[in-house]
């Protein structure tokens, strides 16, 4: 639109008789306000008498809003029929020179964009900054309707709405926007203040505005918001790969069009950090992402390693320990881009617009873990110093999260290795029960717990079943589990009843707690739980006691499943309270399920309901005991268990009367020969003649010792299992022990002979005295 010159016509009496649109734009007065009024009313100062010829001079005009405007007026007389002036035709233009008033110069030279509109959103005036933003001179815009001068986009519609709102309501408005401008090649943040311009009467005659470019402040707030978001969105898990993916998700596309995270190989393993190399750097791609689906800009696939030359941004960032920025046109940039294109030419077209790259080292606790790289393609701005500060702060936070995940993974791996070394790998062979087991380490961020189980062969073909749980998680709990496991094995070797064994174990835990130095560290043994059970396949009786541990479940051969009713004692370390054992007779083929509380307990689960699910799962058809283990875990275990789970299933077997022989022995030395003969005949009946010689010697020695040093009643029992077991019981509680016999001693050689001829031997206390036993292997050598 061309500039419109203001024009007016006055008659010979100085009354305005004509008024152009240009005059309205210049003075802010509509035609109905000007026509019919004396021209002198529109001027600041009185004009001298108009000559009868054309003239041009500056005139000070009073604007409708009260401002004084200097204009250059050209007047031409309009001649009547008599040749005399009947009026004048006036044209006025604003001078192109500097503003004549201080206020005008302040408006024109303001550092922010300032404009004035009439109530119909037409331009009345713009300062230099406003013209620069719009990309045209003031003359081009004056008198034009604002929507006609901009594109039909959302922020333009919002600007127009605010103009109309101020004009209609007469109330000022302050608002912020993120918008572009005709002369700017990128969007800017604007803080805009609009206010009404009034006549002395209060009538709104225009809308003035001042717009401040707040892009830097806006971007600073955006960076701060991203950092705040990073605190909540990065490190939500203790998984290294997921943590790096969270970094990428946070930065694309707000900070970069392409982001990659590469780590040194040792971070993903268990090695100690080596020094950062000075030359080429080998990094493994862990995560990347971009605004394009499939991340076609990536020159390296996930999981692959990449060798970065010394000039590359990643290598420089690792070597210098700070953010490195390179821009299009720099030699290092061109070399880096050429190297990327050569490695993955299929992504060349997606990299064609790359103009800025930033590489930031991932440093945590003084250790270099890897590098984060950001690339801008569609984003119009190059990376600046403020971006580097932001990137270093974000990378520092991300590196701590990655290092936490690395340390957790390393501790978890160590705890698992330690735990696996302590748990039984291959359960020992025995005939009392068939066993199957499962151990599931916790996937929780708390770490590996201290759950454990064991199957311990005892004398007389009996077997001990153990399951326990140590309070807490991590290596300390795993080490505690190992101590308790070894303590139970040691006490089981003494062949104590379940309640007595737990009493001794409780005393041990109490003593260990007493040795702990005073401080804030908790004793991991305190609060540990344990269940100890002994099954005898000859009597088919199960004796068990618990220290703070859940009762086992029992599946009977007829398909019924229920929890074993028992009184659970306090957890280990409480001290001073008794443990009560319960004993029951089981049919052959019954399944005893021992487990830790991780199977049935969870914050959102009812324990009674979970134990009901356990009993129901035990009744499900299963071809093997191993298959039943899997069925139970699938049915009972929650999707994301928060604790370790140990499950031990034991199916009972029974040794029938055809495999056990027993004799009562009179306390008379003459009975030794008869007892020996009876044992030999029984071996012959079992087809074990080859074992008769050793058995005769063992029976003779043990029966003779019982008669000589023991007390009635005396009983001999032979058990044919995987080994041949010879037991002699008597009423004395005094246990024998090996000793070296001197040259002239008449005794002392019997037990030494038994120990040398048998696989193993020992003694155990009973309710009525003691039992001395010895085992011979029946396996062919």
Structural class label: alpha+beta
DSSP strand content: 25-35%
Helix content: 25-40%
**Major β-sheet profile:** 6 strands, antiparallel
Q: Round the mean pLDDT to the nearest integer and report it.
A: 85
Q: What is the overall shape?
A: rod-shaped
Rg over alpha carbons: 49 Å
Can you describe this structure?
With 781 residues, this protein is of the alpha+beta class. Helix content is 30%, strand content 28%. The chain has 18 helices and 31 strands. The strands form 6 sheets. A 6-stranded antiparallel beta sheet has the order 13-12-11-16-15-14, sandwiched between helices. Strands 2-1-5-4-3 form a 5-stranded antiparallel beta sheet. The chain has a 5-stranded antiparallel beta sheet with strand order 7-6-10-9-8, with helices on both faces. A hairpin with a 5-residue loop joins strand 4 and strand 5. Helix 8 packs antiparallel against helix 11 and helix 17 runs antiparallel to helix 18. Residues 739-747 have low confidence and may be disordered.
């Amino acid at each position: 639109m061309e500039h419109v010159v203001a024009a007016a016509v006055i008659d010979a009496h100085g009354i305005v008789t004509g008024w152009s649109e240009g005059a309205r734009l210049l003075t802010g007065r509509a035609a109905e306000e000007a026509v019919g009024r004396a021209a002198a009313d529109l001027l600041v100062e009185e004009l001298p008498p108009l000559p009868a010829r054309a003239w041009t001079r500056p005139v000070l005009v009073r604007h409708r809003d009260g401002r004084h405007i200097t204009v250059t007026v050209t007047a031409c007389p309009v001649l009547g029929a008599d040749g005399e002036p009947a009026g004048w035709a006036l044209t006025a233009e604003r001078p192109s020179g500097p503003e004549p008033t201080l206020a005008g110069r302040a408006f024109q030279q303001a550092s922010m964009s300032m404009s004035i509109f009439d109530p119909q959103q037409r331009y009345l005036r713009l300062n230099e900054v406003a013209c620069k933003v719009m990309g045209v001179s003031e003359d081009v815009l004056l008198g034009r309707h604002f929507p006609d001068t901009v594109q039909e986009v959302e922020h333009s519609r919002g600007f127009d709405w605010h103009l109309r709102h101020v004009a209609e309501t007469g109330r000022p408005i302050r608002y912020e926007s993120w918008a572009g401008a005709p002369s700017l090649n990128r969007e800017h943040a604007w803080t805009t203040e609009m206010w009404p311009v009034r006549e002395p009467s209060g009538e709104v005659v225009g809308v003035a505005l001042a717009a401040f470019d707040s892009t830097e402040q806006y971007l600073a707030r955006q960076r701060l918001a991203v950092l705040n978001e990073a605190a909540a969105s990065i490190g939500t898990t203790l998984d290294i790969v997921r943590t790096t993916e969270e970094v990428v998700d946070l930065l694309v596309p707000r900070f970069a069009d392409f982001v990659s995270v590469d780590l040194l190989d040792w971070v993903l393993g268990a090695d100690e950090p080596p020094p950062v190399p000075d030359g080429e750097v080998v990094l493994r791609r862990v995560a990347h992402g971009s605004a394009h689906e499939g991340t076609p800009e990536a020159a390296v696939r996930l999981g692959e390693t990449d060798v970065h030359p010394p000039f590359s941004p990643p290598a420089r960032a690792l070597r210098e320990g700070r953010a490195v920025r390179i821009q299009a046109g720099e030699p290092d940039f061109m070399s880096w881009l050429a190297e990327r294109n050569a490695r993955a030419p299929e992504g060349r077209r997606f990299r064609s617009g790359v103009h800025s790259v930033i590489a930031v080292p991932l440093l945590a606790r003084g250790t270099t873990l890897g590098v984060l790289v950001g690339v801008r393609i569609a984003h119009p701005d190059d990376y600046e110093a403020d971006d580097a500060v932001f990137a270093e702060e974000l990378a520092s936070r991300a590196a701590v999260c990655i290092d936490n995940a690395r340390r957790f993974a390393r501790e978890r791996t160590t705890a698992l290795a330690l735990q696996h070394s302590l748990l039984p790998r291959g359960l020992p062979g025995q005939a009392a029960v068939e066993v199957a087991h499962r151990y599931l380490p916790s996937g929780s961020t708390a770490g590996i717990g201290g759950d454990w189980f064991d199957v311990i062969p005892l004398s007389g073909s009996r077997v001990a079943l153990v399951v326990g749980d140590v309070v807490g998680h991590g290596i300390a709990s795993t080490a505690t589990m190992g101590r308790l496991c070894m303590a139970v094995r040691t006490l089981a070797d003494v062949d104590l009843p379940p309640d007595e064994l737990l009493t001794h174990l409780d005393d041990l835990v109490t003593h260990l707690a007493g040795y702990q130095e005073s401080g804030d560290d908790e004793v991991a043994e305190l609060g540990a739980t344990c269940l100890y059970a002994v099954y005898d396949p000859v009597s088919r009786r199960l004796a068990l006691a618990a220290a703070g541990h859940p009762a086992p479940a029992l599946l009977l051969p007829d398909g019924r499943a229920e929890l074993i009713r028992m009184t659970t004692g306090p957890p280990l370390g409480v001290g001073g309270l008794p443990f009560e054992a319960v004993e029951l007779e089981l049919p052959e083929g019954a399944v005893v399920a021992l487990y830790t509380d991780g199977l049935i307990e969870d914050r959102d689960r009812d324990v009674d309901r979970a134990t009901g699910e356990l009993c129901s799962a035990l009744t499900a058809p299963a071809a093997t005991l191993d298959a039943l283990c899997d069925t139970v875990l699938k049915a009972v275990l929650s999707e994301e268990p928060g604790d370790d789970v140990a499950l031990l299933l034991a199916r009972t077997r029974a040794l029938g009367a055809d495999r056990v022989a027993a004799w009562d022995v009179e306390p008379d030395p003459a009975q030794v020969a008869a007892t020996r003969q009876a044992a030999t005949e029984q071996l012959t009946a079992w087809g074990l003649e080859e074992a008769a010689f050793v058995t005769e010697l063992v029976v003779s020695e043990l029966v003779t010792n019982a008669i000589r040093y023991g007390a009635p009643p005396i009983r001999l029992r032979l058990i044919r299992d995987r080994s041949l077991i010879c037991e002699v019981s008597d009423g004395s509680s005094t246990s024998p022990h090996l000793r070296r016999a001197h040259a002239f001693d008449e005794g002392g050689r019997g037990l030494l002979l038994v120990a040398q001829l048998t696989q193993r031997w020992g003694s155990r206390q009973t309710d009525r005295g003691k039992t001395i036993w010895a085992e011979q292997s029946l396996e062919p050598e």
